[in-house]
Amino acid sequence: MRVAITNIGTIVSGDWRAPFAEGDSIVCAEGRIVSVGTASAKDVEFCDVVIDADRTTAIPGLIDSHVHITFGDFTPRQNTVGYLESYLHGGVTTAISASEVHVPGRPRDPEGVKALALAAYKCFEHYRPGGMRVHAGSVILEPGLNQADFAELKRQGVWLAKAGFGDFKSAFEYAPLIHAARAHGLITTVHTGGSSIPGSGAITGDHLLAMRPHVSFHVNGGPTAMPDRDFERIIRESDMALQICTAGNLRTALLCARLARDLNAFDRLIIATDTPTGSGVMPLGMLYTMAHLASLADIRPEHAVAAATGSNARVYGLDCGFIAAGKAADIVLIDAPDGGTQDSALAAIRNGDIAAVGAVVSAGEPRFVGRSRNTPGTTRRVRVASCKLPRTF
Ligand SMILES: [Zn+2]
Description:
Distance between the termini: 14 Å
Mean pLDDT: 95
Strand content: 15-25%
Bound molecules: zinc ion
Helix content: 25-40%
Shape: globular
Low-confidence stretches: none
Oligomer: single chain
Largest sheet: 6 strands, mixed
Radius of gyration: 20 Å
């Protein structure tokens, strides 16, 4: 499918060092972005769908790097079906599993946790709920896993590992497993803060610095935060990514975002939701946290967009998260909400408003245009300008 988005007001690139792209059009073909800039009449003529953005703002599809998927579009934590599709309506085109720890009766032995991760990975390899890409299968680190297990998992495709729910007496005991998983090419992630569900324990700065994972999950608490003094230590003494989650502690989210900016570590600041969880299902969680950082911590809104898109992509090695030729065609049109006092999406985010989602293109296919079921309405009229398909969106 070939899709063009024209008449865009602002294009936010997803790269916080160069946050804007020039032009007013994006052309996509076969799931990839072909060009960003000013499309010619000929570029547009050969498209199956042309979307008139009506001067709204284009951002990369949001990447939620902390979602507790299980199987299918269902969460047993809140007994809710269809939540991933709802997240897509909140602009999330990619979800990354934070481990399948919510599967009822989940296994705890090495063979069991390996089988669970592999089954989840394979179930979502081709299944895209609502059009969303789900990276599933994060092996839960438990005693007994060894080098050969990580080698086998990686060979089968599993590339994520999670520490925090294993049957260990002390979090320091995760360190050898984290190092082994890293050595075999897995992205390693660690629960941070106080315990979240029965079976998890407190993990603070000393533990993180002993483990040295790729990502400190919900660095602002999941939901209880580690001591304030530990934030500067892990920023200065490690290179781990700092994942701020909607379901965590708002005060320490702001503290961490300011420190990351001021200590030249903004590359490592990434946004996620950590849902579904005790805090619930939050389809607009990414947009909330972006607005919190921009309105309360003076993070520029385009930088908040980057933390929710390109920075996540860089940390996890994904080919999405940026509006640039060659990247996955995951694009969201956002605007100031109808009735708000701001006149653009970025001004609305800076004001603390939740931007309205006007359209989502995921993997090069329009999933909806002009009528997100979850976000506020927009005053502008994002619409399908022309369509050669048998249906409109
Ligand atoms: Zn979590």
